[in-house]
Specification:
Blueprint: E1 3-11, E2 21-22, E3 29-47, E4 60-61, E5 68-87, E6 94-95, E7 107-108, E8 111-116, E9 120-128, E10 135-136, E11 147-149, E12 154-157, E13 160-168, E14 188-195, E15 201-209, E16 226-234, E17 237-245, E18 266-274, E19 283-291, E20 298-299, E21 311-319, E22 324-332, E23 339-340, E24 351-354, E25 357-361, E26 366-373, E27 391-394, H1 399-405
């Protein structure tokens, strides 16, 4: 067939609920698909089963979420596209003093996407950690699953190739009891080092988003970190980007009192180089963007919304043979959480961009740009409003010194 679409879906079964002990573990899920033709799309979705939950208020630990994995190959002489979504199972709800909600499934390099084409191809991979289960009647919230991508899981061979990899952490579970901790969000890490010697036009994009911290009536937890790091080299036209976001801090419900939790830290780093020699067909683009998580909302007199998470983005692009180079970096501080019923608003995060971009182009054009945006202060009803975060952007670039280093 000239046009082929191959879809595969797998969903793990839920763990059994219980009135005593521990809920059942969610079932695993694995899906794979492949297709060959002129225009080919291969889609895969795999979702782990949720953990078993409490049937009442007796002491029960929520079951853990099930793991998930998947793979897909598309071989299309005219166009090849792969789309993969891997989602860890959520933890079950827990109850009773000393117990906790189940942990969301953590995932590491759980999917592979491969594309082959004589013309254009794109491989897209998203991996999501499972959410933590909620806790009630004295139980803590469960931890969100981490999500880690640390290899070239989206790969391909085509003259024009796009590769996208994103890691997303699971959210922490809420706590329904005053003074009892909610669950932590899961950290997200997306890291890739790639040296491509054959692709004519290559674009690689990495994303990482930390999970939100749990909240509820109990003690809210901070948002998780998001970290994206890309080191990319190619032989002609090449574009690389990273996008990192910290998870939002947990919020306190209107029926409770307490501080909102802080937003998670975001860190993005991009380095792109090309050995291409023809400025009419080649160029280098390197972009990094980081945004800190927002603080959670606080509740009640004497408390406050959480502080916005910090952000740091750095980017570098180089060409030793005269290609034009464009480099950009943007850091956005997280917003402060709101304060309700007398609580103060949280402070927005301050951001400093100090020589966050750099680059080199032998006989070509070099354009550098960096942006710093402070986080907004949180609103307040009955308390003091939160202060906005300061923003500082300093770029002091010496082309002669850079040439000596390159």
């Amino acid at each position: 067939a000239n046009v082929v679409t191959a879809n595969a879906v797998a969903t793990g079964g839920g763990g059994s609920d219980t009135s005593a002990g521990t809920g059942g573990t969610g079932g695993t899920a694995d899906a794979s698909s492949s297709g060959t033709g002129f225009i080919v799309t291969a889609n895969v979705t795999a979702t782990g089963g949720r953990g078993g939950s409490t049937l009442g208020t007796d002491p029960v630990t929520g079951g853990a979420g099930g793991s998930a994995s998947g793979s897909a190959i598309a071989d299309g002489s005219g166009l090849a596209v792969v789309n993969i979504a891997i989602v860890g199972g959520a933890g079950g709800n827990g109850s009773g003093a000393g117990e906790y909600g189940g942990m969301g499934a953590s995932l590491t390099n759980a999917g592979t996407a491969q594309v082959l084409s004589d013309a254009t191809a794109a491989a897209n991979l998203i991996q999501v950690g499972g959410n933590g289960g909620n806790g009630s009647a004295g139980a803590s919230g469960g931890m969100g699953g981490t999500s880690t991508l640390s290899a070239a899981l989206a790969t391909g061979a085509a003259p024009n190739l796009t590769l996208n990899q994103a890691a997303i952490g699971g959210n922490g579970g809420d706590s329904g009891t005053a003074g009892i901790y909610a669950g932590r969000g899961g950290a997200a890490t997306s890291t890739l080092t790639l040296n491509d010697a054959v692709t004519n036009e290559l674009e690689v994009n990495l994303g990482a988003a930390g999970g939100n911290g749990g909240g509820g009536i109990g003690t809210a937890r901070n948002g998780a970190t998001g970290t994206a790091t890309l080191v990319l080299s190619a032989t002609n036209l090449v574009s690389g980007s990273t996008l990192a976001t910290g998870g939002d801090g947990g919020s306190v419900d209107s029926t409770g009192v307490g501080h909102g939790a802080d937003g998670g830290v975001a860190t993005a780093s991009t380095s792109v180089s090309s050995s291409g020699t023809d400025p009419d067909t080649g160029a280098v683009f390197a972009v990094a963007s980081a945004q800190g998580g927002s603080g959670g909302s606080g509740e009640g007199d004497g408390f406050s919304g959480g502080t916005g998470g910090s952000a740091s983005a750095t980017s570098r692009g180089t060409s030793d043979f005269g290609l034009d180079v464009l480099v950009g970096a943007e850091s956005i501080g997280g917003n402060g959480g709101s304060g309700n019923d007398g609580a103060d608003g949280g402070a927005g995060a301050a951001v400093v961009q100090n020589d966050a971009v750099s680059g080199y182009s032998a006989d070509g054009v070099l354009i550098l740009g960096q942006v710093a945006d402070g986080g907004w202060g949180g609103d307040s009803t009955g308390g003091a409003a939160g202060a906005g975060g300061s923003a500082t952007s300093i770029l002091d670039f010496d082309a002669n010194a850079e040439a000596e280093l390159s």
